[in-house]
Amino acid sequence: MKVPLDYAKATAQQATLYAECARAGQALNALSGNGPMGLTPDTVRATPEWQTAKRAYQAAFAALRDFNAVYCKRFKRSR
User: What's the total number of domains in the chain?
Assistant: First the structure.
């Protein structure tokens, strides 16, 4: 993950990644059913729509995680 050298640009990119992750999470939650104990039933997990939303959320979260790993090291004194 490439992090800009400028703190303001890096913070803006981080906010974009957070928003993308939140959007993907909301899409996944919209497809998740209310199963026992609040879990998503296997019938819902088997649908291609849910699987696509799950992969999109995992990709968005991985991008945010990778960005934050570099961001926190590079700008630890700026925060």
Answer: 1
